[in-house]
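Fold sample X.
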Amino acid sequence: MKKLIALILLATLSSCADNTVMERYDKAQKPATVNIKGYSKPDVLQLRLNGLPVSINGSTSYTDKIETQLSFVVDEGETDDLEIYNHQTGAQIARYKINYDNTDQYKNLYFFNLPGIFLQTYAVKPQVNLGKVGFEFIFPNLGEYSGSTLQNVKGVLKRENGVILAEFENIGKDNFTAVKIYNYFSATAPVYLELYKPGTLEPYSGPNLIKVKIKQDIGANMIVLQEKLENGQLVVKGEIDFADYL
């Protein structure tokens, strides 16, 4: 009788072990491919997949143009971490959590790492004819200091005398606007971008008009707008011209 009980117990344990092995190897899997196109200047970056440095052209640290393709398998119920680090300081700049359900969101990964700002967007310098000025805008930290919940703002670009040069209906956080082009008129006169709530002439934050003084260069201008606090007051700056890096 004791032998019979022992045999039944052994068979039960063996069956459980077999089921555990089958469960371990029966997990659904999905191939993931991430096409990376990035740029960093002057910082040297490092990509890491699940903590392991990614080699690009034989190097595990890189600057200027950064392009590669990663291919790996994602298990259902598990997460793969793709991280971007400043190789010189060790600071983490960005982290992407890729899992079985969201692989399509990471087929293409674009980023630009510039002094004081990290943009997760795709950008191409627009073609602007000789004697013309072109402007594009992006507002990645919209709401950081103003507390605004808007996802985009309206921008009206004007000369000092109030003449309207161009209007931008939706300046958002994630992508540059379409380019607007006008005739070049001065190497020294600034232009001003007034910022409003979409579809209105109401300041996007607070009661006072928000104006951004911008230097115009002949050709393409890709301006990164940034909310900042100066003496406790909200201001918006447009000092970074993305076109200088392309």
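Fold sample Y, listed below.
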Amino acid sequence: MRYVRWGSAALVVAIAELWAPGFASLAGTLLGLLLVQAAFQLGLMLGAVLFGLRVTHVIIGIGGELREWTTAKRRVVLRNIPVLFTVGIAGERTPVRRRMVAAGAASAVTATATAAATWLTVGADLGKGLALAAAAALVYELIPVRKPGGTSIGWFVLGLPRLAGRELAEMESTPRITAAKDAFNVGDLDTAERISAELTGEHPELLTVIGLQISTLCGRNQYGQALGLVTGLVSRQDLSPREMAYVMATTAGLTALAVDAGQLPGEIGVPAARRTLEGAIQVGYPSYRATGTLAIIALLEGDTSSAIDLGNRAAESSERAVDRADGLTTVAKAYMAAGDNKKARELMDVAHELAGWFPRVAATRARLSIG
């Protein structure tokens, strides 16, 4: 999902201040932006439930975690500052496109009703800012946009019905991909690999299928083979700029992990990982999604303080238990390098609870138990 860009929101704030100067109008503007964003997400979640989609994660707030509830199918997180509300959805039953369009429409209707209701408050300065910001946020999110940073509700409603060819096949394959990811998330790699092999035989060209192969290889600690798969995608001519940004970011992440696992020389892998990640960000990959890879690169370069900071940020922004466990593992390894094994053990206990089966987690915890 893509949310209101706060840089663009500055224009809304300026207009609101001209219409009704003062703190009340400014407060209303910020409230309107947050209110409509939440309405889009709530509508999307309700649409997913109504039309047979999977709600994969619900993240409430920003900052560090206060509470979390994680299962193989869903991750729910309550963060320190509950000002944003984000939802992830995935196909669980066919036809996926029809269900996605319906969920997007439910989101748009919910947000439109919310924005319309704010105009009942325009008699007060706070209400003027509220109504203006709500209308602007509504229009902005209904513009069809699909970029590496996320997808607007407008694209679900207006762009998705026109999807065709390989990209449509990618979407319609998600129920089986989702089933394989469920198995992967609990460490049932045999089931994940079986589904992956079936899909590879049927649709070897799909990025979602190749991505599943990469995940299962990582689950077996085979980063070199996974890297070979993803680098083979670079020469493909049928990938969109959005897809190529993800390919480059994945290449960078796997390169860093291969060095971390001792499967690739650091003098070759670390500079290559950094260059590839910088290239991915230049073509649109969101930098906040790159913190996990940047943390591993910092760890490999001996910059433990940056590795701890970036690793914590990666763990805090994670949407899956495995990803959070991996981020915490990077932080723990940085503490080990800094000589603080006690802190590292505390982090690895948490990582073990989240995904103790994952090879990187298990190997790091084993090193600490020996030490």
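Sample Y note: The beta strands are 53-70, 75-91, 146-147, 150-151.
Also: Confidence is low (pLDDT under 50) at residues 1-8.
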